[in-house]
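Sequence, please.
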């Protein structure tokens, strides 16, 4: 009985692999390294080696079938996909083909091999400009970019598959803003080039690799004027997947994985400085196009139904992100 993890060499996937192996699960990890490096697997092995790995593109049906015929797969967790919002605007077809395509092909192969447990990585971006806190039952608002559309479409596709196959058990997890790293400092978020996201940018500034943080706007309707997000420690998120997998049941069940607490850009900068005793120079610049003012979860459904709740706070997130940055 093994769990198949697509995108398991990536940021959230690798942390979830650790959390699952700690619970005794044996894993079959797939990745094509389009946004990760093989070295991650060596680091994973130091933490736990209860996995096999295949360099497979999840949109390749034949290659997937070979994996499914070689292993008795109990269920899948589908992380593989592209995630850069700006790039999705410039290269929409790459996003539709990879993100929607991989979900369809994986679901198809699952049907053929009678694998009925499926956990899917979705995003809070599907809520668009709904009113906070975001709740699972809200109507999804069109997102302003193809990346968000690929998540909303993948969700709908899985719902249709579940309607056609009443044995299909799907958990759709809508992540808020994952940050931080495994406590060992061995694995973490390691984006190529200049980071787009706030925490990896802060750690590069703290290290002196980038001169200063640009804070995108201080005229939002928030207490200090900067954007508010629901940052969640990646190990809490990883443990949320373990809980979701254990609680899989027939039909489609949607869960927000967030902390339910909002933190502004400046609050995060100051928390980082406090946690690590290091200054983060910044300047205020124009708003970033496409950003919303406030985003945080109502995380009560996951607590009620999965018995899962984020435990780590902003200081833990800043400390662990910094430890990883210094060990890489
Ligand atoms: P990541 O880029 O670090 O990991 C994704 C992994 O999938 C990478 O290792 C990449 O090489 C692999 N991959 C991509 N396409 C593939 C394919 N066709 N076949 C095989 N492997 C493929 O990203 P992440 O932050 O770990 O995100 C994981 C999932 O969670 C993604 O689906 C992402 O859209 C979603 N998500 C991420 C965030 C976030 O802030 N990081 C937020 C919401 C949702
Ligand atoms: C981005 C994506 C979103 C994705 C999420 C999680 C966009 C528009 N949205 O969201 O789809 O699900 O990442 O990975 O890209 N900020 C700065 N300076 C920086 C970087 C960010 O001030 O250099 C601010 C942003 O304006 C925002 C906050 O920090 O208020 C968080 O930004 P970021 O980490 O990019 O995440 P999101 O914008 O929430």
């Amino acid at each position: 009985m093994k769990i198949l993890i697509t995108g398991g060499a990536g940021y959230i996937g690798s942390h979830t692999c650790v959390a699952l192996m700690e619970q005794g699960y044996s894993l079959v990890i797939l990745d094509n390294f389009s946004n990760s490096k093989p070295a991650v697997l060596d680091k994973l092995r130091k933490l736990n080696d209860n996995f096999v790995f295949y360099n497979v593109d999840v949109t390749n049906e034949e290659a997937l079938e070979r994996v499914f015929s070689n292993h008795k797969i109990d269920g899948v967790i589908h992380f593989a996909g592209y995630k850069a919002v700006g790039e999705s605007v410039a290269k929409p077809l790459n996003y539709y083909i990879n993100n929607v395509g991989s979900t369809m092909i994986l679901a198809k192969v699952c049907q053929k091999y009678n694998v009925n447990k499926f956990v899917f990585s979705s995003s809070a971006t599907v809520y668009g400009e709904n009113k906070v806190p975001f709740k699972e039952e809200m109507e999804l608002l069109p997102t302003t970019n193809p990346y968000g559309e690929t998540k909303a479409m993948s969700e709908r596709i899985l719902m249709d598959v579940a309607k056609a196959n009443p044995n299909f058990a799907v958990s759709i997890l809508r992540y808020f803003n994952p940050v931080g790293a495994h406590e060992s400092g061995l694995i973490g978020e390691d984006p190529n080039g200049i980071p787009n996201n706030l925490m990896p940018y802060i750690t590069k500034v703290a290290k002196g690799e980038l001169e200063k943080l640009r804070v995108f706007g201080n005229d939002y309707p928030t207490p200090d004027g900067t954007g508010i997000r629901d940052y969640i420690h990646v190990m809490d998120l990883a443990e949320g997947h373990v809980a979701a997998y254990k609680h899989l049941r027939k039909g489609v069940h949607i869960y927000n994985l967030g902390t339910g607490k909002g933190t502004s850009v400046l609050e995060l900068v100051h928390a980082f400085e406090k946690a690590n005793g290091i200054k983060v120079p910044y300047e205020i610049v124009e708003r970033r196009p496409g950003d919303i003012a406030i985003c945080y979860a109502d995380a009560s459904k996951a607590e009620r139904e999965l018995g899962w709740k984020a435990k780590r706070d902003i200081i833990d997130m800043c400390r662990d992100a910094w430890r990883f940055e210094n060990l890489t």
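The chain is about 40% helix and 20% strand.
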